[in-house]
Amino acid sequence: MDYQTLILEADRKKMEGNHTEAIKICEKILNYDLECLEAFEEIGDNYLSMREFTKARKALEQAITINPNSANANYLLGFTHSALGNWKKSVFYLEQSDELQPNHPEILRCLGWSVFHFGQRKKGLILLERALTIAMDDCLIMCDLAVCYMNERDFNRTIQLLRRALTLEPQNQKAKECLETALFFQREYHKIKKQKEQKKKDKQ
Predict the structure, then answer these.
(1) Which stretches in the chain have pLDDT values below 70?
(2) 82-136 has which fold?
């Protein structure tokens, strides 16, 4: 059986959004070869797109068992744990992926996001900035970085990133919604700051 042809067919189905068919093709491969790494990676990736994270995790754990040094399997499993909010595990697998495939902007984006939410905020921002330096027009990186800066109350950098994203992708709904939120919080933050300053003056 020509596994590579089937993997390419599964990938084509995935790109068309036909995830169920893509999974079936990969399961067909596994009927003949339970050690086919690419089949498990594809199954995991498709379940991720379907937001069936538990099924994705099981498939990707099997892929890691077959080859712990697969950058793709580590990345996908790290992404899965990020989606599940398992930040410690997410960071572990994404760091593995980053070691195996350094300076990949998508791996760095996910790693930065997970590191930030794991509590290492400064390091997370540095990783996301690095990802953006490598892929300067990547709106997904810009949006994730903007959300992190918004959490840090750095509204100027947040707004700058989101406006740049919308220049590149005017119909980007996530960027639009984030920008509205950032502008609202910026106004509220400055309002509260002014009120506190006024109270301080009144007490003097």
Answers:
(1) 1, 197-198, 201-202, 204
(2) 1.25.40
